[in-house]
């Protein structure tokens, strides 16, 4: 027979999945001898079986609860419902994972019209007895009977108002008796039946309410948001009541063993005298700082701080503790690992290592790498945020907070920024032409596009706040308006974006800047000592490169060359190059672009010093550089002295049905070799010049994109080597260099052995590899990936976290085959996944040499790499 | 030391790659004792080394040629350049593969001002000597010195005109002497130096000219077109001259051992008396039927027909033979396997089996499956074609010939067809909306799109002629004009398309219909006995299905359901369904579509009888069904009573950046389950109705497209089974059915083991699988695939022939893994490759159960499957 109910002394901390967090910790505290009121836990399995049995409590469970209840009554020498010696209990939910949104607590269960009299007599405190009874009716009605809370609150408030009282504690016994009668009247009116007088019935109804609350909409939303499986269930804890509302030597409180906001090693918490737990949470009275307890009840305070210290030592982590003082005696009601801010997490981890409480490895494993993101970006001032009005929600595409005036075109954004405005660029979706407008903006909001859309990728690269795919937005660029349902926002209106949550607010919200403390640097140093993966960055400008080095990047893993061509003075030459109808014309335009490209590389090489720099040759389809709007084409035609119709035709000809799978990457180089020749010349001349003029060692790694067939690679490699040979001979200096390829086409993973014969490195382009392996366009897949996750088809968005089973197997195949022909081939990843902790772990497991990610994710990758090394050592 | 030169008696027929076709056959004929003038062959390896050595003849080769030349002179007791006893030779090219475009022949080499006198004396025939000399100068100048041929022809013609002569044979010795002088003058004038008098120099120049001709542009184009590698080289044959121009008992001719056009078993050829080989080809005199030789030189004729018969027996195939009669004596100058029409190929193969000359297996292996295509489609009348004017060239997207009036819109095409016109539909590219226009047309011409574009795929399915991607076309639909450079064609102008070559002609060209003879049926019967692969068809209509059954299809491997929704009365309901904003509205529209779908399936099931029918559920993204032009949206908005702007917005929202990788296939079913539910209901109700009313057994195979993750498959399968259960219970009859999936997403091949747990069959969708494995969009890749093939990056277009190394390996992986969880899983292919012989062979090798292809390719697949079974038995 399955055991569904455990007395506290039967459990332990490691039974969390069965007893829930609360239950297992109550058991643990009981076993280590702390003052915990007795009780028992109904398991999470019982909860799941309840659902399987079509939401009904079954006999066996009923019997097991009865049995434990009887044992508890024996132990306490009190009986549930016994008017002369009544036992009161609390009923609380407790899942394995801490989770708001579920039913929380019912206190004082066991009171009814008879036992309340008994309690009054025994405690010789009728006021306490009736206060407890009115609380039970109020809580029970709220969470079990689902009667709106305000119906009771208003009665309570009007009673206080009538009598001119400020605080609940001013209410007399008579007042409370009257309230009890009024509350029972509400129940009768709302439910058509009286408040249940049978304590057993109360108990079973409460247990069932906890079970049900596991699946209420708020709880489901929370689990979806935090990737918590729905099939875990919650436990139910039934515990003997102790009373913080027994008088002036009673009270209740919550405290953290260290400050959860700053990490300071000092008790942090608050308490209320003569109150029950929910009063602290409800904020009816203002709680007092835990320090004050020292003066009020010095012994209880002393005892509590001892218990708090021993709990931290026992659990070896900062604890979040609930306690009650009943007539001067301290009771522990809950302990759990305390939630903390990223800042506090680092502070506590480093302190605990220095206190020799935990090892460096444990400190590192305790941090959530993604939380570091908060530290690197501005955040909203929390108080200001509390008053803000949420207007819609998109995807949290790039971290940080931004507040500013709406502009709808990149040109307007640039102008406003130049005039000193803080700009939020609002677009349906961005394209490479918008780059300058994005640079000029504090934040970017798009109506379309997913987590890896152009806006998202570029914003992350810049460390700029971005909310993408806010599907409710209705943007009219012509009218310069943005509608959300019936609300309309125009140019110059203030909005605020939270890139960590995807929330969009109306109005201006104050932000505060990021700052990195010394503890952060210490922790990262430990991480660097432990990790095996190198961490590089994806950066296309000297500014981004410098930022990345500051964050600890050890090289550039992906320098995209396409963004370099969008600057105003270059795009024209680029367009002329594309529109050339002869090789000679194209070469002329390329000759103009060459010195600009060289300058780009000189800047990046300087910023990176002697660190390796992987440069990807031109990748996107050429039509991305061409104007698409009629007016822009007209303008270009005039500038280029080409007939409008001819130009329109060329633009149309270059348009592709599926640009993602089109004429791009090395395919361009095979039809227009002169483009790559120019780029390679620019790279090598920049490197030789730095060597000659500044004696700087540069290690360019030339990366050929979109290779799917060995002949493509060999063709471009030969072309590259010819140019390199020329440049080196002309300059007379030696520059070490590598030539390698992106692995991003599924076929490349299959023929990796052939490619590796010529390629000195592989860099996994997991964005494209995921697109092609799944057949998902990342520009379009946002529409159904959400539905896929809702319906359980996909557990994770494969663009956010590497799909180990599919994409991962192809990566492993490529590595195995690549090494079969070049055992020392250098292996890296430069897709967005390179900055995502779970993916970084996978990269460690399959033996990559490095990951590369946007500058602001470099610290995350460093930490994740260290965690991976520790987990798999 | 490498042997570069072989005497004829040193070679044999199996040394074709080294000695070329001509050389190896001359060796073979020498060895079996036929009358072949002596000579030697310079190898193809020598030719390739010549290119490697920067186009220079090297000493060793020179010495080897000298040596063989000396041996030949000894054998013949004549010497090259000996005025008293001159040896004359012919120099001819001969690659391993028969290939027009290269230098062909130089006869009479060895003549100069001195030896011509010697020849005149020895033969006592000065007219012959000078005729030979003027021929040498003419041919040598043309092919070695590259002096335009007409410069000599005009001199010859004016000489005949001056003298009032009709034929070359009327020229006197004096005339010929004068011509020789005049010809030498031309050489001097054109080249600045005299016609080379040293016979050795003549010989080496001729050998080099043959080498060079391997790489002339015509030869390269021919090889590209016929997929012949460029790295083979040509051999050079040097052979003692015999003279068909020695007088009235001399002559020369060409004959086939059987009729190459009809296959009739009877000598077929022509000859000229007193002539040399090039006269037959040049058409200066009209050659006579070989039969006539019987009367003129009965003995030579008799001997020739004996030799012809023995050559056919020796080579066991129809031969194409060149011969010369020198003063009554027969000499064999060449034999090779004769080219023949598809009709003749079948006739000859079947006849030879019946003559017990070859086995059925050999007969089948000798046919090129692709040639069958000619037999199934109309072709141009050859004479009419000869006068036609070629205006441009596109891709040979779908076989057959079509001639008709140009129409630019599907609506105009439908109207014109209804009015009895023959229509050629001319479009930039077609879309599913154009279907009715395509049905109404005799042929389709598009400016964009490749071999697997919408136009190409649909046309092949219909067996309709299509030329796609004719890039020179400049179509203006608004003006209803089509320009090719400066020429302009309007609506109603006649053009003609050749779907076998991709050629487009102006004007009307007569076509002749296809007809299939009894021999064809006999051969296909043999093929069916031998093959292991089943052959199904891709068909979406009862008409196509019936056609396919006629061509031998054993089931439907792919019935696409999307085309069914484009009919006029349906598209409106379909659009309403797509534009529904609630599940209820969508269901209402689907309820209207259901009976129509059911009717479709009843029709197809009836046409297929008890053969299995695989139905693919809706696959394309929904926006394909929506109008894209402003006017069409306006019209629809009016019909639907929806505001124009709202409709435009929805259409815009549904638009995708990369539709190929977008919201389509089973992804639709996961967001809109009711669509597939309707389709599955329609399929099963059609099947149960036929079973009930007509007692017809139907085996529907329900195919889920675009699965990449097992949860997708399981979700749709469950949905399907619920509907099926309902339909079967309601009808009370049993219908056997299968549920399976397309394997077309690379990830599906990796997780095939998981998918196969639920899937009863896999059908490889190699079109999409190729797109995603290579990262090529088939709509766009046409632009660079040509360049890839030109530059040797890709040997084959992977959309035409399965890429065994990449896509093939994924298929093998899917099969292995699929069988690991379901050993008896049914395996097929329904991509375009299913009708391509090389791919069919691969399907046989990896153990598929069937291939499926468009109706008109079913016979090709049957033959290819038989060939594969024979080759791999």
How would you describe this structure to a colleague?
Two copies of one chain form a homodimer. In chain A, strand 21 (494-498) and strand 22 (503-506) form a beta hairpin. The first copy, chain A, is built from 35 helices and 31 strands. Chain A has 873 residues and is of the alpha/beta class. Chain A starts with a strand and ends with a helix. In chain A, helix 22 (568-579) runs antiparallel to helix 23 (583-608), helix 30 (752-758) crosses helix 33 (804-821) and helix 34 crosses helix 35 (858-871). The model of chain A has no long low-confidence stretch (mean pLDDT 92). In chain A, strands 12-22-21-14-15-16-17-13 form an eight-stranded mixed sheet. In chain A, strands 24-25-26-27-28-29-30-31 form an eight-stranded parallel barrel, surrounded by eight helices. The interface between A and B is large, with 50 and 50 residues.
Distance between the termini of chain A: 41 Å
What is the count of DSSP helices of chain A, taking H or I runs of 4+ residues?
Answer: 35
Strand order of the largest sheet of chain A: 12-22-21-14-15-16-17-13
Count of beta strands of chain A: 31
Task: Report the structural category of chain A.
Answer: alpha/beta
Shape of chain A: elongated
Overall pLDDT level of chain A: 92
Question: In percent, how much strand structure appears in the residues of chain A?
Answer: 15-25%
Multimeric status of the protein: homodimer
What is Rg of chain A? 33 Å
Give helix % range of chain A: 40-55%
Uncertain regions spanning at least 5 consecutive residues of chain A = none
Q: Which two chains have the most extensive interface, and how many residues on each?
A: A-B, 50 and 50 residues
How is the biggest beta sheet of chain A arranged?
8 strands, mixed
